Amino acid sequence: MEKVRVGMIGLGARGMGLLTGIILHMDDVEVVAVCDLYEDRREKAASLVEEARGQRPFAAKQYQEVVALDNIDAVVIGASWADHIDIAVACMEAGIYVASEVGGAYSIQECWRLVETYERTKVPCMIMENCCYGRDEMMVLNMVKQGIFGDIVHCSGGYHHDLREEIAYGVENRHYRLQNYIHRNCENYPTHELGPIAQILGINHGNRMVSLVSMASKARGMHEYVLKKKGEDSALAHTEFMQGDIVTTMIKCAHGETITLTLDTTLPRYYSRGFNVRGTKGMYHEENQSIYLDGQHDAHHAEWNKQWGNVEEFREQYDHPVWKKYIAEGVKGGHGGMDWLVFSDFFNSVKNGTPTPLDVYDMASWMCISALSEESIALGGQPVAIPDFTNGKWMNR
User: What's the pTM value of the predicted model, to 2 decimals?
Assistant: First the structure.
């Protein structure tokens, strides 16, 4: 296959950004259909494709219209979180490769439906977790594989991202996040932090997550922000938000490792993914861009603050081969280049008819954390079992 014929489903901020910033710059991808419930979005997307490629794609309101086409090789799902799995299932049933943007699941049942559809159809479905392709995340993975940090004991990550403006103006911007923050209380966006950690710990490939506990703080940040920005007379000022400002989730793995995830999106703060790795021989700490190795840095305990920010010293030796090649050829696309890498991998899988590097088992096990954390929070922080979506295959995959 020389060119992949793609349908874009969901053309909000993320979907449109992928279309204009990544996909229309890939010579081996042809956009043959665009889809969104809102007419202005799909017409704008169709015009942008026509302007860039000289041919106007089919513009659909309902995703079923795209799935029914006979000239589609793959679909990119950028719709709302609640629609990801329904669309993915429909595509797999139709024999269409799936690239699904990230989010959290609403029930364990829908995660099982996703897996069972794949096992019946054998049509690949990839969760497009771009953070798995981050330069630091891949360098740390490379170091872990070489044993530099020893036996990995604990990892932590977070989605620390001030989203108050996006949520508060959800009605005006037609963004689905607002309704989730009004009605749900959970770790609603787990995969940015969990994806890279799952790669490091071999989740679904010799290891698995077995249980979690989750707790949420009170919800105050959004109410104060709405009062400040929209006033006491606004409709949203009288809305009670269910989503706690800080949600902490702890996960236990089959081989004894622990994971801590933190959702932190409704209080003022700087952006961070809080990616930290702790092993018997050292640690990586994202927020201060530091690596600490046993035997190499112990003499500097008293003056360690002066050593922080030393990650660049390890680049030449441990930068991942994918990134060395990428930098030599020229970094492209959004989010520091991660988007281009994840989509290149996906489209190469489609062209070659091969499995995707992040698969349906990853998608189900990472997304299920939302539904399970919601249950644990509702039960006062009780432990909840995490299903084995591989049905035992994780031991030998």
Answer: 0.96
